[in-house]
Each structure stands twice: as C-alpha cells, then as structure tokens.
Specification:
With 251 residues, the protein is of the alpha+beta class. The chain has 5 helices and 13 strands. It has helices at residues 28-36, 41-44, 205-211, 214-226, 234-246, and strands at 47-49, 56-57, 60-61, 73-79, 82-92, 97-101, 111-113, 119-123, 126-134, 140-150, 154-165, 181-192, 199-200. The strands form 2 sheets. It has an 11-stranded antiparallel beta sheet. A two-stranded antiparallel sheet has the order 2-3. Strand 10 and strand 11 form a beta hairpin.
Length: 251
C-alpha cells in the first residue's frame, strides 16, 4: 500500500539560524496529500525522514523513553485556524519533534513534522504549538509549548522536557553499573500581555510576585496564603493565573 504524506506550506522561523518562508495551506487532506506528491521543494520541507532513535547503546538498554507515550495517538492537526485532518502522532520530547503517520499500522514508517509556527497539534489533552521561549539561563530556545491558562493579562504555558543522562560502567565487582536513562520533567512559561516574549516561570511565591505589576502583588500574595496555594502543583499554578487574570486593574 502506498501511503501519502501530510504537507503544508512551511514557514521557517525568522529567529537565529532560521529564515522565513510563508504560503497558504492547501485545502483539506486530499489537497495536502496531492500537493505533497507534486514535488514542490517548499512542501518537501514539511516532512522529513525520521532520524533513528537508538534505544540501546553498547548492547545495554536505555531506561525510560524520549517519548511522552510510546504509542502513536490519533490527533487533530491544524494549520492556523484551518483543520487539516486526523493523524497518528507521537511526541519526542527529547528532540522536541512531532512524529506523524497517516495510519496506525506498524509497517507505515513515521515522518518528522518540521517545526512551523502555524501548525497546531491537539495531542491527548494538550495542544502542541512550536514556540520561541526564553529559559532561566536567558537562552532563547525553540520548542513545543502548550497553553494551559490564558487571560487578558497573562498566558501560562506547559513544556514537557526530557533529559538524557549517560550511564557509568561498574568500576569493580563491588559497585553496580549506572544505566543510561531518559528522565521526564516539566517546565512552565508565561507571557505578559503587550510583551513579545515568553519567559520561564520560577515556581516560588517571591519569583511569581516579582513578575507582576506592583499594584496587584498584595492581592495575589493574600490569595496564595488564604487558598494555601502550592505553586509546585500545576492545578494550583493554573488557579493562581486565573485569579491574576481576574483582577480588575482599570480602576
């Protein structure tokens, strides 16, 4: 069976190391597939052959996984506000890549969906969007974030990340070897209305209050105390940003 590939006109980011190319998305799944088969150089940028992710090294299996889930999940893909179609998706959080297939058949080889700010993927209970953000080290990065709370003043983002740790061989028979592993962790980012940047959020009360306008800091501080908010918990973090966005600063 000959499988067709998803394709849309690609917009390569205009940040460091990127140049910008834009165009309209072909209409509907059939239009996308037909365009992909047409051999357009621009369309060929959208999906690339997947790099092989080795699960073993030196004959030893790596613990954990670079994926959020090992299986492909049926997901909705959008280009801007336009619905493209349903595809089977797997998110490689280590490489910040979306792997995509038209079917759930094992014999179909997945492709790598190239990063594009206009593409949105509703993956599980989150919507992945390729975004530029700034981490705690003040480094500008590109990767997939999910909006988990939004309002007039602030938008809160979630990022799943994976770190690879190299194992260590046993020094002698009395010491156990440490296997290589993938470790999952979560980061949160925020964007203030009117500010064209997304920054990593430190999940401590003092750091959170510092990013807020002075006139609302006392209100938010009281809310955190009265509601016994634990900013290390995502649900409490979302509640806090919902409260921040509910404060009327017009008076």
């Amino acid at each position: 069976m000959k499988f067709k590939f998803l394709a849309v006109f690609v917009s390569i980011l205009s940040f460091t190391g990127y140049s910008q190319v834009t165009g309209a998305a072909p209409l509907g799944e059939t239009g996308l597939f037909n365009s992909a088969q047409g051999g357009s150089p621009m369309l060929n940028l959208v999906m690339m052959n997947l790099r092989v992710n080795e699960k073993t090294k030196g004959g030893e299996e790596i613990l954990g996984s670079p994926y959020l889930t090992e299986n492909f999940i049926k997901s909705k893909v959008y280009f801007g506000e336009e619905f493209v179609g349903d595809f089977f998706v797997r998110y490689n959080a280590l490489n910040s890549e979306i792997e995509i297939k038209e079917t759930d058949l094992e014999e179909e080889n997945p492709k790598r969906l190239l990063a594009n700010q206009d593409l949105r993927v509703k993956y599980g209970n989150r919507e992945l969007r390729f975004t530029t953000y700034i981490n705690k080290k003040n480094e500008t990065k590109n990767g997939y974030l999910s909006i988990i709370s939004s309002g007039d003043s602030y938008t809160l983002y979630h990022r799943l990340a994976v770190k690879y740790s190299e194992g260590k061989a046993a020094a002698n028979s009395m010491v156990m070897a440490i296997p290589s592993r993938y470790a999952h962790f979560v980061e949160y980012y925020y964007k203030k209305a009117g500010v064209e940047r997304i920054d990593q959020l430190t999940q401590k009360k003092g750091a959170l209050l510092k990013i807020l306008d002075k006139e609302i800091r006392d209100q938010v501080n009281s809310f955190i105390k009265e509601e016994k908010i634990d900013l290390s918990e995502e649900t409490d973090l979302i509640r806090t940003f919902e409260y921040i966005n509910s404060i009327d600063t017009s008076s």
